[in-house]
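Two proteins follow. First one:
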Amino acid sequence: MRRIAVALGALLAVTVFGTVGYVLLGFTFMEALYQTVTTVATVGFREVRPFTTAGQVFTIVLIALGVGTVLYNLGVLMEAVTEGHLRDELERRRMSARIAALRGHVIVCGHGRVGRAAADFLVAGGHRVVVVDSDPARLSGLGPRVEHVLGDVTDDDVLRAAGIASATAVIVALETDADTVYVTLSARAMRPDVTIVSRARTTGSTGKLELAGATRAVNPQRIGGRRLAVFALQPDVAEFLDVVMHDEDLDWRIEQVEAGPGIAGRTLAGLEIQERTGALLLAIRRTAGAQLEANPPGDLEVPEGAVLIALGTPSELAALAALVA
């Protein structure tokens, strides 16, 4: 685009130069502009007025400048069209406009094995996703609900282009812990309130990522190893949790809902959650950062902002969200 802008600017400059020159030679503005265009375009029309020696010399100079400029413009435009640069630039602009219109999306930094799995799961759940990666090959074949930004995510401008100002969460799954820590720091500085989940390639980097601002640091290898052990010892429990959390064809889900201000002071027994919604309450977190309380008692008062974790169908969970809102 920069080369196209330079080429068009040069063509405009030659046109202005020729028009001003012919006006100084006694032409009217329209005559000067017409003569300049026909001369630069080399169409071979007649001269508007007979040329003096000065006019002939000026026309020779204008032809030399104009023909070179036109050929350069044609070369740049043909290269942009045949090699796809213009198409790619237009698509990038359309993508930027779509990302700017998103609200509540999830940014996935790094589209390797872990990032791709996270993005696929989010899309299956109906969420909008913006993937950021510096490798064009990794960004090919993305689904209709996935936008992408090609660039180095350690650059703050790339995070802004991904719409971090309006994102609900950021998943950082880069190749090295150093890059992951840096992007976590940058994302936290730009959005103090956003949820950041960072991939820890080693167990020792988990604490560093949390210090850098990660809401949660996850080691996929460690989680995978634990799941293998659970499948070996308690396969039915592991299969149930795996199906509930990851099987898109099953109606049951485990989700979290937040209690609104109108719920403050009411007890779980008074809410009659299972009787009124059908959802099964599994745990509650009374305040941010507090421990999860599994199988909470009925006399527990629900404070505003508490997070309830429940099992149910989408309609049951929607009824629970409406009840505690």
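Second one, unrelated to the first:
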Amino acid sequence: MSSTHIVSIYDEELKYLTRRISEMGGTAEQMVADAVRALVNTDAALAQKVISEDVILDQAERQINEKAIVTIAKRQPVAADLREIMGVIRIAAELERVGDLGKNTAKRVIAVQSSGIPRTLARGLEHLAELALTQLKEVLDVFATRSPEKATAIRERDDEIDAIYTSLFRELLTYMMEDPRNITPCTHLLFCAKNIERIGDHATNIAETIFYMATGEQPEGERPKDDNTTSVGALGEQAL
């Protein structure tokens, strides 16, 4: 078999992995968007759809891992080629986790169905989800270009999501303090808000992986963080 033919087959294998990551990303984005929509509108049918779709991401991650392992065994890639395959494995794991967070959010729709969600809280959750999904979409676009500069820019924007999450966290605590009957539904909403905030973290992780794939180096410095929820309880009502 000619070396040209071997290279062509290897390129097709890499294209397959890239295509499957793009498909996983699209599925993960849709699951999260639908989960938030189901939560805001207390749509149990849509929530169940999200829950049932989680198996799609699980299967996709498993297929990507199997293909990547076979490719490594057959081609024995080194340097940039090996980083490419290992990066795909890591990104697939991040996207599978995003799907899990969407599923977990959808599972909480029934828990808040009887009480509903105050409009101000719904707007806060929608805004948080919009930021997280925008970051996820943009980092998947960067995956297609492998631009280390754009990956770094996305990594440095993670504090925007943290700030919105902290604000929503405080608002939910206020609702619970005002009326004990709000404690149960607001606790579920706190978990949902944290799920969405974590999606931003996974997008940042993907950005860091892309940077490594492109440069062979890890990004310098700590990623920006603006999650101040750990200090809210200590500050008491003044923090609210």
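SUMMARY FIELD: The longest helix spans residues 3-40. The chain has one domain: 3-239.
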